[in-house]
Amino acid sequence: MPFLAWILALGRLHADLCLPPPVWRIPEISSPKEKTYPVSIPRHWVSWNLCWFPGQNPMASEATKKSHENEVQVWIERLNPSVGIFQEVLSAEAMKRCAPQLPWQAVTRFARAEDEGAGLPPQNLAICSRIPWMDAWEVDFDLLPMTPDRPVRGFLGVEWRNKKEECWTVYAVHLKSNRGGREASSKRRERAIEYLRMDWRKRGLDPDHDAILIAGDFNCSLKNPEFRRERTIRGLLAEGWESVTQELPWPKGATVRPDEERGYPSADFDHILLSPGWKRRMGSNRIVSGVDQGADVPSDHWPVWMKW
Predict the structure, then answer these.
(1) Which of 4, 23, 159, 173 has a Cα-to-Cα distance from 250 of 20 to 30 A?
(2) Which residues contact 301 (CB under 8 A, 6 or more apart)?
(3) What pTM was computed for the model?
(4) pLDDT tens column, 74-96
């Protein structure tokens, strides 16, 4: 091995050794029995925080849960994605019922850690696809030591691979909220990104050459100057990653509704990020993206979408 490459590899190994290991688990998977290779990568992507789905409240009644499920189903049909990346999913069964057109589904099995409110249900992640994938996995943070920078929940990964052995890797995330203070929360979000790096290195991936997409609720803004020092997203952008909605003007770029009652303004917390390798393979100049800010969207977050 060339000396420089050896030094870089040693540095990456040392960085990983500084992180306590998370737990790799198998998500809850539902899919048709037949499995075929995709001809190409899915072309229409949606990322959406569904807000305590179903119910929009962890204590919602059965009637409210059913109503929310029906509303989300209407919106998924309206959005018509090839792949949906969803956050705050409480029920894998409800996810299957409201998105039957996306039959390859993986839903995490997160457990709430002791500092996350043990009396509440876990807010899981889901990746639902029209096109079969080759692998799905989850990484959980609930057993990590209770350090000040300990991340929450975990993340979900899926890999598509075609007959040419070209692969596309997608991660769903829902990072720490800003409750407890922005500075403290940013450290926990930045640590979650370090674990993402650990995972793709573990899988032999290099963002400069491999197609990797990260999507979800980052609870971190690119438009609010109060977040300008946080490296959660900006660290990736500095390495050549791209946020597909970064250039949207305000307020078209907002992905979170304002909450006047609790004093929360609009925010751009939801993102779809593409690695340099993804852009090189697919061509970033062919991307169209946006935020669907419909008044009847059944969530406190609006869906973010991307198409080729």
Answers:
(1) 173
(2) 48, 49, 50, 51, 87, 217, 255, 256, 257, 269, 270
(3) 0.92
(4) 999 999 999 999 999 999 999 99
